[in-house]
Design a protein that fits this description.
Structural class: alpha/beta
CATH class of the largest domain: Alpha Beta
Strand content: 5-15%
Radius of gyration: 28 Å
Number of helices: 10
CATH superfamily of the largest domain: 2-enoyl-CoA Hydratase, Chain A, domain 1
Order of helices and strands: HEHEHEHEEHHHEHEHEH
Number of strands: 8
CATH architecture of the largest domain: Alpha-Beta Complex
Helix content: 40-55%
Number of domains: 2
Largest sheet: 8 strands, mixed
Mean pLDDT: 80
Shape: flat
Length: 318
């Protein structure tokens, strides 16, 4: 009797394990099937890099959209923006190019790359004017790029300007002293670790870093003066020092200061200024895989940096 019971228990346990294995296998199968389905759907329906639409072969206004933080590894990086601008200018039937900007700024290097390319394309294609249209925000690095356009437009409530440079971080030296934590950081070079948040600032390092920021700020001012020239309206109340102090203005105020040339949307500029209402978007978009990898990589990098109190952004035009 006991033997029969033991065999029944063994059979019951064996059947249970087998059922669990089958359930796991089917679970994995359906998860993989769902992933494949989503991947195929995204691949089929997400626009390709340079897909511009059926009206590309007719006269049109070319659009290139810059959205978000301007930085290497972000969607608004120099390579992506420049690729879109080149396609827009090279298009046989594009009559003018409109760069639509909605950005708080970012890397001065990435902004500078785009600024230089904008001037090069303007000189190479003098028959095609380049317009910048600021939507919600065209600040710092966003305005840096806009300054290379023939003309700048914005909405009356857009935020424009912020011509300045920033670099920030945290210092944990006092906290470490209270906790009794000793920092052991070995370097070759007296000031090699001057941006380390766990080390005290040495004499002269703050002054040195301020000089670096001042040098980049001077470059920013020079590109704005080159692009805007006599259109900037300096007065006793609004001298160069105040205009380039990092302040931000509404589109209405920016128009009065000569930071922009008019008020209007991308559609308004295409229709009323360029005279070509039909618009084709040349913005380069990442493939689904590139977007996922970029988002995952940036998220992991930012999380690690934030947990250590370290900024990986360096100098920022914000």
């Amino acid at each position: 009797m006991e033997q029969n019971r033991d065999r029944w228990v063994e059979k019951f346990i064996g059947d249970s394990f087998a059922e669990q294995k089958r359930a796991r296998r089917w679970g994995i199968f359906f998860k993989l099937l769902t992933f494949v389905y989503l991947f195929v759907a995204i691949t089929l329906f997400m626009p390709s890099n340079f897909k511009t639409g059926p009206d590309e072969q007719a006269p049109h206004t070319a659009l290139v959209v810059v959205k978000g933080v301007i930085a290497d590894g972000e969607a608004a990086n120099a390579n992506t923006i420049v690729a879109g601008l080149r396609k827009a200018f090279e298009a046989e039937h594009s009559k003018a190019v409109v760069m639509v900007i909605n950005s708080p700024g970012g890397s001065p290097v990435q902004s500078g790359f785009v600024y230089d390319e904008m001037w090069r394309l303007r000189e190479k294609y003098p028959e095609k004017k380049l317009y910048a249209v600021i939507t919600d925000l065209g600040a710092s690095g966003g305005y840096y790029m806009a300054a290379a356009a023939n003309d700048i437009y914005a909405d009356k409530a857009s935020l424009v300007g912020s011509i300045g440079v920033t670099a920030s971080g945290f210092g944990f030296v006092g906290v470490m002293d209270k906790l009794g934590v000793e920092r052991r950081h070995f370097t070759s070079g007296e000031h090699k670790a001057f941006l380390d948040p766990f080390s005290p600032i040495k004499d002269g390092e703050s002054f040195f870093w301020q000089q670096v920021l001042g040098s980049v700020h001077k470059q920013f001012i020079e590109v704005v003066l080159r692009g805007r020239g006599d259109r900037l309206k300096f007065t006793g109340e609004m001298d160069e020092k105040k205009m380039f102090s990092g302040l931000v203005w509404s589109g209405e105020q920016a128009l009065e200061l000569g930071l922009i040339d008019g008020l209007g949307s991308p559609g308004y500029v295409a229709r009323e200024v360029i005279g070509m209402e039909e618009m084709v978007n040349y913005t380069v978009k990442p493939s689904p895989i590139e977007a996922i990898v970029r988002h995952l990589g940036v998220s992991i990098g930012r999380g690690a940096a934030s947990s250590l109190g370290v900024s990986s952004d360096g100098l920022l035009l914000r």
